[in-house]
Amino acid sequence: MGMELEQYEILLRDLYNQMTRVAYSKVRNKSDAHDVVQEAWVRILSKQDTLREESKLTAWAKTITANVAYNVNRRNGKSSTGWFEPQEPSSSSPTEAELLLEISELLGALDPRSRTMMLYKFYYGFKDQEIADAMNLPLGTVKARIHRSRERLKHWI
């Protein structure tokens, strides 16, 4: 049962991340994107009985997310690329906002302790020993967790 729950959580987290990417690509604002995803989840949960094929959940959720984003843009008076309208080709390098959103999503997928260690190490510039002292953990544990977290992040990219 525990493994099934863990797999379900992984699937939901992946779906959430995909929905966030769709929302961000439409509204181009991190805060609005998170609002769009929240509203989309509410719609998905309230209309889950209308989903005919469970295998199409991801596509269905992304479509709902895009439609909610379109409505948010319309409400805010922003022009946006609609779900079925062709998008302008984007430049080959992502914007800073897109990179920050991606980093935030990746860090959010880590367990809280590993996320804290990664932030201490790479954002705040703490040495491994300082992290070990701050978190009251052995130095070897900190080094191993940082290494495993980096490998996990590399795999996800």
Automatic annotation (TrEMBL):
Residue ranges the record marks as coiled coil: none
Entry keyword set: DNA-binding, Sigma factor, Transcription, Transcription regulation
Pfam families, per the entry: Sigma70_r2, Sigma70_r4_2
Domain RNA polymerase sigma-70 region: 12-77
InterPro entries tied to this protein: RNA_pol_sigma-70-like, RNA_pol_sigma-70_dom, RNA_pol_sigma70_r2, RNA_pol_sigma70_r4_t2, RNA_pol_sigma_r2, RNA_pol_sigma_r3/r4-like, WH-like_DNA-bd_sf
Keyword Methyltransferase recorded: no
Family, as annotated: Belongs to the sigma-70 factor family. ECF subfamily.
Protein name (record): RNA polymerase sigma factor
GO molecular-function terms, A-Z: DNA binding; sigma factor activity
Source organism: Paenibacillus roseus
An individual GO BP term: DNA-templated transcription initiation
Keyword Transcription part of the UniProt annotation: yes
Domain RNA polymerase sigma factor 70 region 4 type: 101-153
